[in-house]
Design brief:
single chain, Beta-Lactamase, Helix Hairpins, 4 domains, 5-stranded mixed beta sheet, 13 strands, 52% helix, elongated, membrane, transmembrane, transferase
């Protein structure tokens, strides 16, 4: 129940008092005139008080009305602002949905499989191409560790451990991985060669995800196989006439006394050109044999130091011609290692001939052989022209030659390092290098102490 204002209580009390006094005047025998006078006088006073009270109440009501009107205006303004905020939120939501749909359309339009994972390797996003590539639905991949669902094998068909998977390396070592030397397994028994690129994603200096692109390169491998077969066939057909040309050039050179100086120069040019062609044909044949898997790997206990020294004797003429200083060092207790001596000899041959060719006169070349608990590591270094930074990534590609040496040494086919990598990896090892342009290059390759695995085949290298 609401309470009356104080002024109203005062007036109510005055009315009661007025009535009481008037009754007393009548009861005490006073004259009616006096009672009436008192009543009129007191009533006037009460009317004045009531008027003042009403004025106060009116003023208060006006103030309250003004306050209510002001408050109502504020509420109306707040309502407008909230309405605008809601409209902005609806527009923002519509724009976000539009952008999300656009991103999803772009993602789905990518022809290669795309997989994004969290830092712990769990799948966050896949596109439709990934589903088609591996045969798994998105629901079967999202939230799972990608390298646990999709097995991967190397070129020899051996399953790759989790810590050696490109996705795992990208996340743990913070580097981009690109390769076409892997095989992936889809749902069921499907196995296919794949080109893979995996890179970490950074935000504020931290790795927040990794993105992998996967493409089935079965067709490209088939094309490469056909090219390899053609090169092998063509090379075999070229060897016979080239051998005949070389033999006749040697015969002419032996009878140089009956030739003029100009004719003798012609014969020498024929011999040199034929030798280069024979080297190219042999390299092409070796590449085709390794790529086709027809090469024989026949491991035997081998003394690597003796192998290198015998090879240097064979290269002695080229070394003396350029006045190079060659140093050979080896671990004191270096054991024999069970490898294919013909294949590993070819590796040393290619690295040493490159070092001789791309090191200026009076340069220095060093061969060092050491070992650790699991591998024997060979190092071939020089202080030659070095490799430009922009060319390093492509150095082991077939037919690739660094830009700086092409200008200095135009002769070359770009197959030597490709062969080195192929032979070392087929022998169970790894190859890598360090280089600085105009200061020199160091190549390293490792071979497992346990030796290479024997592999049957059809032909040997350089046969």
């Amino acid at each position: 129940m609401s309470r009356l204002p104080k002024s109203q209580y005062f007036i109510l009390g005055a009315l009661i008092l007025q009535l009481a006094v008037t009754i007393l005047l009548f009861l005490s025998g006073r004259t009616a005139l006096m009672a009436s006078l008192f009543f009129v006088t007191s009533s006037s006073i009460l009317v004045l008080g009531l008027s003042k009270s009403l004025t106060t109440v009116t003023t208060t009501l006006q103030q309250k009305t003004q306050e209510a009107a002001s408050r109502l205006g504020e509420l109306e303004e707040t309502k407008k602002q909230m309405t605008q905020v809601l409209a902005d939120l609806r527009n923002e939501k519509a724009n976000m949905e539009k952008e999300k749909a656009k991103d999803e359309a772009l993602l789905e339009s990518i022809g290669d499989g795309l997989v994004a994972t969290s830092p712990d390797g769990r799948v966050l996003v896949v596109n439709h191409a990934t589903e088609e590539l591996f045969g798994f639905a998105k629901d079967e991949l999202i939230g799972k560790r990608f390298y646990e669902i999709i097995p991967m094998a190397d070129a020899r068909g051996e399953l790759i451990k989790t810590e050696d998977r490109p996705m795992k390396i990208a996340l743990t070592e913070d580097r981009k991985i690109s390769s076409s030397d892997y095989f992936l397994f889809g749902k069921g028994t499907r196995k296919f060669p794949a080109a893979i690129t995996v890179a970490p994603v950074h935000l504020n200096g931290e790795i927040i995800a990794a993105i992998g692109i996967y493409r089935d390169i079965s067709h490209e491998k088939d094309v490469d196989r056909m090219k390899t077969e053609f090169i092998s066939l063509a090379s075999h057909q070229l060897r016979t006439p080239l051998s005949a040309i070389k033999w006749f050039a040697e015969l002419l050179s032996d009878s140089s006394s009956s030739l003029s100086s100009e004719q003798n120069d012609f014969v020498q040019n024929i011999a040199l050109s034929t030798e280069r062609m024979i080297e190219l044909v042999n390299s092409l044949l070796n590449v085709s044999r390794i790529e086709s898997g027809r090469i024989i790997i026949d491991p035997k206990p081998t003394d690597l130091v003796a192998l290198v020294k015998n090879l240097l004797l064979e290269l002695e003429g080229k070394i003396k011609e350029k006045h190079h200083r060659v140093i050979v060092t080896a671990h004191e207790q270096l054991p024999e290692i069970t490898i294919d001596p013909k294949l590993v000899r070819q590796v040393y041959m290619n690295l040493l001939t490159n070092a001789i060719k791309y090191t200026p006169d009076y340069g220095e070349i060093e061969v060092a052989i050491s070992k650790n608990d699991t591998d024997i590591i060979s190092r071939v270094s020089d202080n030659g022209y070095g490799i430009p930074q922009a060319n390093k990534e492509k150095l082991f590609q077939k037919f690739y030659r660094a830009e700086n040496v092409v200008k200095i040494e135009p002769d070359g086919n770009g197959l030597g390092l490709y062969l080195v990598k192929a032979i070392i990896e087929s022998s169970g090892g790894k190859v890598w290098f360090e280089s600085q342009e105009n200061k020199g290059t160091t190549f390293y390759f490792s071979l497992p102490l346990s030796g290479s695995v024997r592999k049957p085949g059809e032909v040997t290298i350089n046969s």
